Amino acid sequence: MDGIFLIDKSKNMSSFEVVKHIRKKFNVSKVGHAGTLDPFATGLLVILVGRATKIASLFLNQKKSYQAMIKFGEETDTQDYLGKKKRVSEYLPSINEVKEQLIKMKEYFQMPPMFSAKKIAGKKLYEYARKGLDVKREKVKIKIHSHKIIDYNPPFLELSMTVSKGTYIRTIADDLGKRCKTFGHVLELKRISSGKFNIRKAKCIESIGIDDLVTFDEIFQENKKIILNEFLISKVKNGLVLDSRQYNKEEPFCVYNKEGEFIAYYVPTENNSFKPVIN
Q1: Annotated catalytic sites, by residue?
Q2: Which is nearest to 4 in space by CA: 29, 42, 31?
Q3: Which residues share a beta bridge with 194?
Q4: Cβ contacts of 82-89, under 8 Å, gap ≥ 24
Q5: SS3 sequence, 155-221?
Q6: pTM check: above 0.85
Q7: Helix (H, G, I), strand (E, B), or coil: what is residue 237?
Q8: Which residue has the higher pLDDT, 61 or 265?
Q9: Which residues contact 113 (CB under 8 A, 6 or more apart)?
Q10: 21, 55, 95, 264 — which has fewest CB within 10 A?
Q11: Each residue's pLDDT tens digit, 8-38
């Protein structure tokens, strides 16, 4: 079994628990996800199965869209409602202040939160945080590609946004609060899309079935395709590096056999050659 499942993750379930469920339900050993969701968060979780686990980075590098509920006036150590309250403020920003600061945050350097799965020296940051340790981290440049304020009823702000890879919505809430001269944390968070895949096509984990598997044909439907003969197909399956004799553009492409079956996914490397990511 090779492909992806689009799961509408429920609240209070970890991303790893979803992986374990899929592994057991379909009796497959190779299962992963393309970007974790906090247990309190809901929405789209892309589950990779079989050879598709090799393209996790393809999804991790793509834009993601979220809908969030932020509460102003309170700061927590996890930047969400589950954390310990650190500081409070009675000041609540006006809608114009919020709009102004969101525009200024279109591109900025964000500090990864201590309560996150980001790794430092081989350990996830939350492992340090649970021991009360604060580890030195480097800020990461992130981008809010678009945002829309859905409703603002102080202290509650509901908005949607599309962000670049590596962006923490919890940290946006924390940073936005401070930029508005108060504090902020996330009350609710839902992932709407990951790359080209949307929550509209996702199913809850209980109702997902084999017919819901998204195949390589659909995953790579926008990529160029080349058809090779049986001799080269046998070489491709063994990891053959291709070059400009097979494809002359510096972009990823898929290899199919004459019967129309997906065989491999290639990406460009140096010296006008291409290496297989899936084969």
Answers
A1: 38
A2: 31
A3: 64, 197
A4: 82/40, 83/115, 83/185, 87/183, 88/183, 89/181, 89/182, 89/183
A5: CEEEEEEEECCCCCHHHHHHHHHHHCCCCEEEEEEEEEEECCEEHHHCECCCCCCHHHCECHHHHCC
A6: yes
A7: coil
A8: 265
A9: 78, 79, 125, 168, 170, 171, 174
A10: 95
A11: 999 999 999 999 999 999 999 999 998 889 9
